[in-house]
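does this look right to u?? S-adenosylmethionine version
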Amino acid sequence: MSNRWWEIVVKCEPVMEESVFWRLEKFGCSGTATEIKIWENENNVESQSALNEQILIRTYIPEISTQLLDLAALSLWLEQDAKLLEVSTPEAKWHLIDEEDWATNWKQHWQPAEIGDRFLIYPAWETPPEDSEKIILKLDPGAAFGTGTHPTTQLCLESVEMRLYSNAETQTIADLGCGSGILSLGAVLLGAKKAYAVDTDALATKTCRSNCQLNEIERNSLIVADGSIEKLIESGEIFDGVVCNILADVIVELFPQFNQITHDKSWAILSGILISQADMIADVVEQNGWTVAALWKRKDWCCFNIRRSEY
Ligand SMILES: C[S@@+](CC[C@H](N)C(=O)[O-])C[C@H]1O[C@@H](n2cnc3c(N)ncnc32)[C@H](O)[C@@H]1O
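got this back:
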């Protein structure tokens, strides 16, 4: 049976070879190989003839075992390793290879899973039980992120459950970087008044819309739009809660605009953040007048529960 693999290519200085191999092995890659390449050092104007020897390390990991967020984390770890060795930052690139039979294979591996106390995530192609006490959230994530298998999604959905525990029907939610829509769907299924989901990836918003239909969500209860925080600002809505599971660097960029879409008692859930990036996020949160209420961790990842008021 064939499936899709990520081909990861790291270009780095030869001195990093061992540490890159170790890092890739720890990440779960197999079949790692090195090619020696010599590039002209275009940045070195003074010595036009100087050559910059770099190596290419090529490796593979099944798509089923990793997600884009993990690959971004890998890239960050490589950058940190290079800093420790005091060499230039390696360039890591990845792409998917071989699509044959992928969907079938992936569907066999993705099974229904409980998240938090209330949710049972069900693949669209399976028949959910009729007598479950859980809220059944049906998903066909397609190519979008958000099956519920990633720790950051789980942490966010558990936080949404906690936030909406007693007052769901009063809450309007923004889902910034919605992917499959799992977080805003979860909020609406918990009884939230309304949710707005945005994503810069048109495939994600398309998937989110079809997941709304799958879960029989009324059109006005979950609005989906292509774009980012500017779409939420344009909506003119002031949100009681914002969920945002994107990479830390993107959160840092977007967070100063959170005050334009929230009121002074709003809350937010931030994830997609490596534990090593928590201090950076806490600083940005506090600099913008928000308070960190709780920090949850799972594996290498963390999730911030924050609020605008001080109490
Ligand atoms: C890690 S996924 C999260 C998906 C889902 N919310 C979850 O928790 O599983 C991040 C999503 O954010 C989207 N994204 C990345 N940068 C963005 C930005 N600046 N504004 C809006 N969405 C963005 C990506 O396309 C991706 O679908």
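The mean pLDDT is 88. idk if thats expected tbh
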